[in-house]
Write a structure and sequence with these properties.
The protein is built from 11 helices and 16 strands. The protein has helices spanning 15-26, 48-58, 85-94, 128-137, 157-164, 203-210, 251-257, 261-264, 270-285, 317-334, 348-360; strands at 4-7, 31-33, 40-44, 67-69, 99-104, 119-123, 141-142, 170-173, 184-187, 194-197, 214-215, 244-249, 290-294, 307-310, 338-342, 365-367. It has an 11-stranded mixed β-sheet, with helices on both faces. A hairpin with a 6-residue loop joins strand 2 and strand 3 (40-44). The longest helix has 18 residues, at 317-334. The N and C termini lie far apart (50 Å). It binds threonylcarbamoyladenylate (TXA) and magnesium ion. Magnesium ion binds at residues 144-145, 153.
């Protein structure tokens, strides 16, 4: 299959630019498109055969359900059995935006898009290209992140091209995404909403909207083989770079600084930077290609002879989220063998960053 790439001019966005993509979706094909979180790999969510093509293109296990993307809140009703009260509040506060909710599904949604579950994940993205495309297609669009299963999610069209060239019909290139980590996922089917995957709508924001929110254990730690996580995707080793990745964390320091939300993010523990430098130099002496993941605040402290990459400003965690997957992909192409990474706060947006980094490291976290 030949994969076409269409560059979208966001400043002069016209329906004509999206008509081909909408036609492909309507007729059962695959289109990658930008959202505000990461690029999605879209197909008609109501067409099991189209959904099956997504699993094939990504090499994704078929028990891992897809998110149905909608263009307006009124598109939700036909897809679900009921809209719980908490969901109503969350929709009002955060849609359109990086929030996915899990509902009991209606019979309209085929099991082929929900991994056989009787629930469905739904999200209304904030990206204008995504919403216009869904509206033109006239169907809910099932879309996982547009990466090969197990690779970091794509935050620019070129990442999608690397993974999906020859596997899908069309890539809409809408430039780099805004947020850079996937949407927050909340299960609203029970009495208390449960956070299944942290994202840019943070736990603190959710609690402000609906009060108490439970946190699924898969958000913070590894899932043991005998436990079935509520979000099936959380059990797979995601975002994994080819290199061995080790996170270095000074828990005591993080705790001491967590009382001071603003200041904490501008500083980093010296124990962390020193440990990373020592371990990285030891590996380099053995002849290994070594990478370091750090921040603008610390980048000057590391040896120039190593592959040192900053994720952005610790004092502005949204820059860290934005660059995270791109840096992991860059290290893949540099064929680095070992990566040492600084760690981040475990609250606010830091929770999403640490969730992705910990998973990428296979929970290999060195406490100093
Ligand atoms: O930001 C995002 O959410 C991106 C963009 C494209 O919208 N999409 C995305 O999709 O990250 P994906 O497939 O890579 O991740 C979806 C996650 C998986 O962990 C999956 O297991 C979970 O959502 N999920 C989907 N439907 C579910 C359901 N019915 N119950 C529980 N978890 C579900
Ligand atoms: Mg994904």
């Amino acid at each position: 299959m030949k994969t076409k790439v269409t560059v979208i001019d966001r400043d002069a966005l016209r329906d004509e630019d999206l008509e081909e993509a909408a036609r492909i979706l309507k007729t059962g094909g695959l289109v990658a498109f930008p959202t505000e979180t990461v690029y999605g790999l879209g197909a008609n969510a109501l067409d099991e055969k189209a959904a099956a093509k997504i699993y094939a293109a990504k090499g994704r296990p078929s028990d891992n359900p897809l998110i149905a993307h909608i263009a307006s809140p009124s598109d939700l009703k036909p897809l679900v059995k009921e809209i719980p009260e908490a969901a109503g509040k969350l929709m009002k506060a955060w849609w359109p935006g990086p929030l996915t909710m899990i509902f009991p599904k209606s019979s309209l949604v085929p099991g082929g898009t929900t991994g056989g579950l009787d629930t469905v994940a739904v999200r209304m993205p904030d990206d204008e290209v995504a919403r216009r495309l869904i509206r033109l297609a006239g169907v809910p669009v099932a879309a996982p992140s547009a990466n090969t299963s197990g690779r970091p999610s794509p935050t620019e069209a070129d990442h999608v091209y690397q993974d999906m060239d020859g596997r899908i019909d069309l890539i809409l290139d809408g430039g780099p995404v805004g947020i850079g980590v996937e949407s927050t996922i909340v299960d609203v089917t029970g009495p208390v909403p449960i956070l299944l995957r942290p994202g840019a709508v943070t736990l603190e924001m959710l609690e402000e909207t609906v009060g108490a929110v439970e946190v699924d254990p898969a958000v913070t730690g590894p899932v043991s083989a005998d436990v079935k996580p509520r979000a099936p995707g959380m059990k797979y080793r995601h975002y994994a770079p080819k290199a061995k990745l080790v996170l270095v964390e000074d828990e005591e320091w993080s705790r001491a600084h967590s009382r001071d939300y603003g200041r904490r993010r501008t500083a980093v523990s010296q124990a962390v930077t020193r440990t990373i430098t020592r371990l990285a130099m030891e590996e380099a002496k053995k002849g290994r290609r070594v990478g370091i993941i750090c921040t603008d605040e610390t980048v000057e402290q590391y040896p120039k002879s190593l592959w040192v990459r900053s994720l952005g400003l610790r004092s502005r965690e949204e820059t860290i989220a934005h660059n995270l997957f791109g840096v992991l992909r860059e290290f893949d192409s540099l064929e680095v063998e070992v990566i040492y990474s600084e760690s981040f706060s475990r609250d606010h947006l830091g929770q999403a960053i640490m969730n992705r980094l910990s998973k990428a490291a296979g929970y290999h976290i060195l406490k100093v």
